[in-house]
Structures are given as structure tokens and as C-alpha cells.
Specification:
Blueprint: E1 9-11, H1 13-17, E2 22-28, H2 31-36, E3 41-54, E4 57-68, E5 70-71, E6 78-79, E7 83-92, E8 104-106, E9 111-113, H3 114-125
Parallel strand pairs: 7-8
Antiparallel strand pairs: 1-9, 2-3, 3-4, 4-7, 5-6
The chain binds zinc ion (2 copies).
């Protein structure tokens, strides 16, 4: 797999060291990078937030907006599902066992890859099943037509009936 480009890596060293230090995060992830993480987007992911050292604890809080290019799991038609989610993480340079949690982001060399953070958060926030509508009828297993659009008349329960 191709290594996603890393122009989104930022150093958080001075933020880690200085209490009350802040840095705004305002960044758009390009389509190549979003695609490399397996989530191509119709509207590119945009991060809007803050890195802030709160009394010695470095926090990343941001809002992620995008429109992923999804398709229905049943009928494969495009699904429009705009995402607007808030995330927050504590940034640590080493993990303790009790911090084995998505809330904690590991930045061992004080470098943070914002694309990786955002795309991972985005993927984890997606529902496991994507449907164009809750009652999607899917594709006909006999003729392959989209049964939301046409009533193909196939009887998938007993295929031979159609030929009698
Ligand atoms: Zn569907
Ligand atoms: Zn059919």
C-alpha cells in the first residue's frame, strides 16, 4: 500500500513543554490522502480546532466536516451522508497500560500526523452498515436489477418458478 503523504505532520514539542500554549488547527485533507486512507470524499475533510496545553496536559479538540463518497451496502447506489463530528484526544509521548484507549494519541517523537488522526476518527465514527434508506430492497439476486427502482418480477425464493 502506498504511504499516504505526510504534509500533515506537525511538531507538538513546544506545545507539550509550555503550559497554556495554544495552536489553532485549520486544515483540509486533500483527496489523494483521504483516498489513501480508504475513505474517498465528495467534500474533503476539514479540521477546525485547537491544540492546547491545559496545565501540562496537551489536548487536541476539533470538529471534522466532510462528505464521504459512500455506497449503499445493499444496492450500491451513492449515499450522501455529511459528517460533522467533534473529537478530542489527549496527546502523550509514551503510553501507560491504562491509556490504551482511542482518547489517547501517541506522539513518541512529538510529531502528530493530523491526517492520520482525522481519518482514523472518521473511520471509527462511520456506521458499520451504510444504507441508502432503512428499507432499501437491494439488488435482485436473480437478475441484478436495483429493486428500489424496478419491480423485475423475479422470485428469488424459488427461482425455477419463473421458468415454468
Ligand atoms: Zn440501497
Ligand atoms: Zn430480478
Amino acid at each position: 500500500m502506498q504511504e499516504p503523504q505526510s504534509g500533515y505532520r506537525i511538531s507538538v514539542r513546544s506545545l507539550l513543554l509550555r503550559p497554556n500554549e495554544k495552536k489553532t488547527v485549520d486544515l483540509t485533507i486533500d483527496s489523494e490522502t483521504a483516498g489513501a486512507y480508504g475513505l474517498p470524499c465528495r467534500e474533503l475533510p476539514h479540521l477546525d480546532g485547537l491544540l492546547e496545553n491545559r496545565a501540562g496536559v496537551l489536548m487536541l479538540s476539533y470538529t471534522l466536516r466532510c462528505v464521504p463518497a459512500l455506497e449503499c451496502d445493499r444496492c450500491l447506489s451513492p449515499v450522501e451522508m455529511p459528517v460533522e463530528e467533534q473529537f478530542s484526544h489527549v496527546i502523550v509521548t509514551e503510553t501507560a497500560s491504562e491509556q490504551n484507549d482511542a482518547e489517547y494519541l501517541l506522539a513518541p517523537d512529538a510529531m502528530l500526523d493530523l491526517a492520520e488522526v482525522a481519518m482514523t476518527d472518521l473511520r471509527l465514527s462511520m456506521p458499520t452498515k451504510i444504507l441508502c434508506r432503512p428499507d432499501c430492497k437491494g439488488l435482485c439476486p436473480v437478475c441484478g436489477q436495483n429493486r428500489n427502482l424496478t419491480d423485475c418480477g423475479c422470485n428469488s425464493a424459488d427461482i425455477t418458478l419463473d421458468y415454468q
